[in-house]
Amino acid sequence: MSSDLDLEQQLLAYYVSLKTPIPEGGAEWNLSPEHHYLFGFSTRDFLYRNCELLPDMRVCNIGIGMGDWDDYLGYWLHKWGTLTSVDIDENLCGLFAYRQKREQHSNPSSVVAEDILHTSLPAASFDLVTIIGSTTHETGQPEAAMNISLKLAKSGGHVLYMGTTETAPESWFKDYLKHLTCRVTHHENFTYYSGPQGVPSHWWKMVAIPNFNYHSEVEGYAYLLEKP
Description:
The protein is an alpha/beta fold. The chain contains nine helices and seven strands.
């Protein structure tokens, strides 16, 4: 069990890593317009517009990572419900819980450190389950991770899945959906195309400068599934 002093040192290292270049940290990606557009804006906006807050709402997020999404979900749920955050990395879970405590988050997560493929969480216990980014594929069994997400949702509850083409093409998820009986209530695609000054795609594709060396296109896709 880590002492508070150990956790303080780990927390400082965490903050430093956010500003440290790859490979030790991920500053370039964490601070990039692509990351902020796909994860900082588009996914949160998709949730805000398409998911209804319910009294005593129970939400589960699978895969903590940096914890920004869990932070946002907690604030979104404030005075409405509770969040359970699950991650396989025990050290990450401990540090995330400690960080939320130190930052005085108004609606902190209940953190569970375990492999989601072998979860101890009871079935049909959440109104909403979210799984975003590369989490499904980091498990090594993306279809199984999605099946468990659906298993955790209540009847009439929802699963929000968001992926990026950097991890896997959208076609894998469309193929997965063919075997489900749940209903897709909302679906959106997000595209960020970085021109010479980071201007979104619809501007640069309109002007279509000949022979210009554009940066790569980053795409995200979000689905909200309703469990029967």
